[in-house]
Amino acid sequence: MGEVLSIESGEKSLKLKIKCKKVLEKAKLGDSIATNGTCLTVTKLGSDYFTADCMYETVKRTNLKRLTVGDKVNLEKSITLATPLGGHLVTGDVDCEGRVVAIISEGIAKIYEIEIERKYMKYIVEKGRVTLDGASLTVMKLGDMTFGVSLIPHTQEMITLGKKRVGDYINVETDLVGKYVERLLKFQDGPFKENEGITMEFLLKNGF
């Protein structure tokens, strides 16, 4: 984890300065560093910090807009083809914010229940993977607009979710595979015709 040193607000943008150490090893200008699971480009490097710009799409979609100076953030450099993959492929393209609606102790673990817009729930699969503030986690329960993940004590200490309280927001990136499958199944060859309605061609194509 890193710590927010400063935040500069621009016109529909943010500039973040993050204090960190480990993630800067062999880092260089222009590298990508996922910050709370959001892929950001390094625009300036110091011995113990980096800065990054956030455009409007990033500000709008993510919890980076809710950060204050002193907040902790998850940090991760991009993997290489030689990197062992212990979770799943994460792009750093956040779909939406989720809200913590319940935290339940269960033995050594804590279950965090996250609420998201229902339209994103179709990409959440029980025992599938979801990314929360950049951390690849296993979905262990599903509701209509909520899902749950379970954290062991080590994970609670290592990622931001372990510091969250009910009502806090977290970045959610759903599994990329589901989005591609949906796109392939729904896509129609040929030009898109808005409000085409029922035509003879449509009826013939569908067996009428």
Commentary on this structure:
The chain is mainly β and 208 residues long. The chain has 2 domains: 2-77, Beta Barrel (Elongation Factor Tu (Ef-tu), domain 3); 96-186, Elongation Factor Tu (Ef-tu), domain 3 (Beta Barrel). 14% of the residues lie in helices and 38% in strands. It is built from 4 helices and 13 strands. The chain has helices at residues 56-61, 153-158, 176-186, 200-205; strands at residues 2-10, 13-19, 32-35, 38-45, 49-54, 72-73, 75-77, 96-106, 109-115, 129-132, 135-142, 146-151, 169-173. The strands form 2 sheets. The chain has a 7-stranded antiparallel beta sheet. Strands 8-9-12-11-10-13 form a 6-stranded antiparallel barrel. Strand 11 and strand 12 (146-151) form a beta hairpin. The longest helix is centred in the C-terminal third of the chain and has 11 residues, at 176-186. The relative contact order is 0.15. The model has no long low-confidence stretch (mean pLDDT 91).
